[in-house]
Automatic annotation (TrEMBL), chain A:
<feature type="transmembrane region" description="Helical">
    <location>
        <begin position="455"/>
        <end position="476"/>
    </location>
</feature>
<feature type="compositionally biased region" description="Low complexity">
    <location>
        <begin position="181"/>
        <end position="192"/>
    </location>
</feature>
<feature type="transmembrane region" description="Helical">
    <location>
        <begin position="224"/>
        <end position="243"/>
    </location>
</feature>
<feature type="transmembrane region" description="Helical">
    <location>
        <begin position="69"/>
        <end position="91"/>
    </location>
</feature>
<feature type="region of interest" description="Disordered">
    <location>
        <begin position="181"/>
        <end position="208"/>
    </location>
</feature>
<keyword id="KW-1133">Transmembrane helix</keyword>
<keyword id="KW-0812">Transmembrane</keyword>
<feature type="transmembrane region" description="Helical">
    <location>
        <begin position="276"/>
        <end position="299"/>
    </location>
</feature>
<protein>
    <submittedName>
        <fullName>Putative membrane protein</fullName>
    </submittedName>
</protein>
Automatic annotation (TrEMBL), chain B:
<feature type="transmembrane region" description="Helical">
    <location>
        <begin position="45"/>
        <end position="65"/>
    </location>
</feature>
<dbReference type="InterPro" id="IPR005182">
    <property type="entry name" value="YdbS-like_PH"/>
</dbReference>
<feature type="transmembrane region" description="Helical">
    <location>
        <begin position="15"/>
        <end position="39"/>
    </location>
</feature>
<feature type="domain" description="YdbS-like PH">
    <location>
        <begin position="70"/>
        <end position="147"/>
    </location>
</feature>
<protein>
    <recommendedName>
        <fullName>YdbS-like PH domain-containing protein</fullName>
    </recommendedName>
</protein>
<keyword id="KW-0472">Membrane</keyword>
<keyword id="KW-0812">Transmembrane</keyword>
<dbReference type="Pfam" id="PF03703">
    <property type="entry name" value="bPH_2"/>
</dbReference>
<keyword id="KW-1133">Transmembrane helix</keyword>
């Protein structure tokens, strides 16, 4: 048992004599990482050595150095880098040890600064097994163990990089499958059936007995893959990345590769075309590259996507074509589920499901998906089904009424508040146009006369204003909150609309905010704090009485004693403030522990 | 409608401390503007008036803000929860149930020490930030922290 104080930090841990053996671990057995790690380091050192060699070749040929010397220099540099990488990896390997005892997971690491981390096993929330192509070839994987710790000092996870896939699988099962709930599940080696397609090269085991599938990839979903911003900026972004990468080795993409002199004929030919055609073609090419990129990324990330519920009380997500990934989540630590609908995806009728859980990181560098993503972009109905399966009753669908677990709208003042932002932004946009014209940047002063520029500025300002109002209307329509037997529901967001179903038992406090402006408009923001996910989920700009009643009912007995004895809100006034979606007919419950007036008299108007 | 205010005010010395705090910011700002006006411009009258107005505003804020903030800051520790209200422009009520508290810290800055004040910070497992009871008498803060620690140690679990 942990005390509420952080008793689980780094420290001396004496193992109790005769600590129980769990699933084949020898107590007190420190293990090392796989030695094949050095091969991985060597392979990755080539990624550094190659551009260095290219740079050397370029530099030396320019200076007229003999070919033998150039080759020797390249080989020397490559060897040096390789040796450096391998030596460092050997040191790292020697410094890193881990063990799993009956109660704790311990990791010693650090070449220069030694570190000993020790985490109680009951704090282990997630296991993330990743195998990139290099490690897969060598039969290795990286295991990241997510803990309930919040990044107090450094990472909140223990990373074992690399261990064998077998060992990764063993640890994953050992740490996350509670032995009392499913005795068999703690021994995956026994349950493993060799030769299954997935386990042949996968970073995870085949589905054992008792595994319940929740979702698996349907190739029809790929039509939703291009519905990201990347489809529109993808081509340009790729060009930028290529330019940057070549720049590192000393090649200028535009001067050296697409040499104006070499391709003079091409440039001249293009210059003869009408500008509108060139622009159209450019945009199309950009779109084509972007869409192709989005599709490739989808295939790479979500190939053989499966989401299963394992008998040990965990959710297991597997995916990936080249880099294989499996994420295991302890269901008992799941604190809810979220449906995210980015604007483009929403227009295409799609959504994604993410987990509200502790121990999952945000997407790190070089990762295409954040760790809490439970699905690729899927059709909305499918997203709702998956959310319901994971955390019943899930997130209410578009048609659900407030009384039936649906969402309740917010006062119109919230829309006015959002629309008001359009004014300063529109004014700024107009001013920028005038400023650019006055300064003569981009040749705008030659293109437009002073009078036309004024009209253009006004036009831009009006366009921005209208767009702002549109966005405000969308943002307002997104606002909503509700309560089910298990969840607190909150929805908001214009560009990315997020609907969160947060477990009421996972709420560990409230933060209620009211700015001067909100006060005048009769609005209030209530934020539920939790250990999981982003740490805080908010009901933005609700009617104060509504917001406080919601918080009170979500966690009975916490906020109730702090609410005024005599409710000051007028039922009529409250009802008038909540537009579009009618109030809950059955009304709010009486708060426990205080003399609230009968619920019906306060809430049943409208 | 809003939650009722927590029962306790910060220590009255807090006004002094916050005044020093604001003065550390406001006085250099006003002084800087005045110095810049004298040394860097050819001292037109309109700019002089503007700078004077700015300086007066800064100094007025140094006087007003701590008092307004003091009026808004309240705290209360009940059997079941720690409850605070703070903020002037954005009024914020925070509540953390006793059973979810992970750590209790007291902290005193160098200026705070001159005034004999301490802050008590109560953290839960959420990344959303701690509940902070600001500017208590030093002895009161130590007592409170001890009491909170005892209570939270008696309640198991922290809902992570």
């Amino acid at each position: 048992m942990t005390t509420p104080r952080r008793a689980d930090g780094t420290g001396d841990v004496t193992l109790p004599a005769g600590a129980e053996e769990v699933a084949g671990t020898v107590p007190d057995g420190w293990r090392r990482l796989e030695r094949r790690s050095h091969a991985v380091a060597a392979a990755y050192s080539l990624a550094v050595a190659t551009p260095v060699a290219v740079a050397i070749v370029r530099g030396m040929t320019g200076a007229g150095v003999a070919v033998e010397l150039i080759v020797a220099a390249c080989a020397g540099a490559a060897l040096l880098i390789l040796a450096g990488a391998v030596v460092y990896d050997v040191l790292r390997w020697r410094a890193t040890e881990y063990r799993v005892t009956g109660e704790r997971v311990e990791l010693r690491s650090g070449v220069v600064q030694r570190r000993h981390r020790s985490v109680p096993r009951e704090r282990v929330r997630t296991a993330d097994v990743t195998a990139d192509p290099v490690r897969r070839v060598l039969g290795l994987a990286v295991l990241k163990i997510g803990t309930g710790e919040h990044a107090g000092e450094g990472a909140s996870e223990l990373s074992l990089d690399p261990i064998s896939r077998r060992e990764a699988e063993r640890l994953r099962a050992l740490l996350l499958h509670a032995p009392d709930r499913a005795p068999g599940a703690a021994r995956p080696d026994a349950a493993r059936s060799p030769g299954t397609a997935y386990s042949a090269d996968g970073a995870s085991s085949p589905a054992g007995p008792g595994t319940v599938p929740i979702a698996s990839l349907a190739w029809g979903w790929i039509r939703l893959a291009p519905l990201t911003v990347w489809s529109f900026v993808g081509g340009g972004a790729l060009l930028g990345v290529a330019y940057k990468a070549l720049d590192v080795v000393g090649v200028d993409l535009f001067q050296d590769v697409l040499d104006p002199d070499r391709f003079e004929g091409v440039w001249r030919g293009l210059a003869a075309w009408p500008p509108w055609l060139l622009i159209t073609l450019g945009v199309l090419a950009n779109l084509l590259v972007g869409v192709a990129g989005a599709l490739l990324m989808f295939v790479e990330s979500w190939w053989r996507y499966r989401l299963d519920r394992e008998p040990g009380g965990t959710l297991l997500l597997r995916r990936g074509l080249l880099t294989k990934r499996s994420v295991t989540l302890a269901e008992s630590r799941l604190r809810g589920v979220q449906i995210a609908e980015p604007l483009l995806l929403r227009l295409g009728g799609g959504a994604r499901v993410t987990a509200v859980a502790t121990g999952l990181r945000e997407a790190g560098a070089g990762e295409s998906e954040s760790a809490d993503a439970l699905t690729p972009p899927v059709p909305l109905a499918e997203a709702h089904r998956i959310a319901r399966e994971i955390s019943p009753p899930g997130v209410p669908g578009p048609g659900a009424l407030p009384g039936e677990g649906g969402l309740r709208g917010h006062p119109v003042a919230a829309r006015r508040r959002r629309a008001r932002w359009a004014w300063p932004v529109a004014g700024a946009a107009g001013a920028v146009v005038l400023g650019v014209h006055a300064s003569g940047a981009f040749g705008l002063d030659r293109l437009l006369s002073a009078g036309t520029a004024r009209w253009a500025a006004a036009g831009v300002a009006v366009a921005v204003l209208l767009a702002g109002w549109g966005l405000a209307a969308v943002a307002y329509r997104s606002l909503g909150h509700g309560l089910t037997s298990r969840h607190l529901l909150a929805r908001s967001g214009a560009v990315v609309r997020r609907t969160t179903a947060l477990d009421r038992t996972g709420i560990i406090g409230w933060k209620i905010e009211q700015s001067v402006f909100q006060r005048r408009a009769g609005l209030m923001t209530v934020r539920a704090t939790t250990a999981a996910g982003r740490g805080v989920y908010s009901v933005l700009d609700a009617a104060p009485a509504d917001a406080l009643a919601l918080a009170d009912r979500a966690v009975p007995g916490l906020l109730g004693p702090l609410l005024p004895e005599q409710a000051t809100d007028e039922p009529g006034g409250y009802g008038a403030g909540t537009s579009r979606i009618s109030c809950e007919p059955h009304g709010h419950q009486t708060r426990p522990g205080r003399n609230a007036p009968p619920a019906s008299s306060r809430w049943s108007s409208t | 409608m809003e939650p009722r205010p927590p029962r306790n005010l910060p220590d009255p010395r807090a006004v002094g401390w916050w005044t020093v705090h604001c003065a550390l910011l406001g006085v250099p700002a006003a002084g800087g503007a005045a110095v810049a006006y004298v040394t860097l411009t050819d001292r037109p009258l309109w700019l002089g008036l503007l700078v004077a107005a700015f300086a007066v505003l800064c100094l007025a804020l140094v006087v007003v803000v701590p008092r307004a903030y003091y009026r808004m800051s309240r705290w209360e520790v009940t059997e079941d929860a720690v409850y605070t209200r703070s903020g002037w422009i954005v009024r914020t009520w925070r509540i953390a149930p006793m059973s979810r508290i992970q750590t209790v810290d007291t902290a005193r800055g160098p200026v705070q020490r001159l005034f004999g004040l301490s802050d008590v910070t109560v953290t839960t497992a959420s990344a959303a930030g701690p509940v902070k009871i600001e500017a208590l008498d030093h002895h009161l803060a130590a007592e409170l922290a001890e009491r909170l620690t005892l209570i939270t140690q008696a309640t198991p679990g922290d809902a992570t």
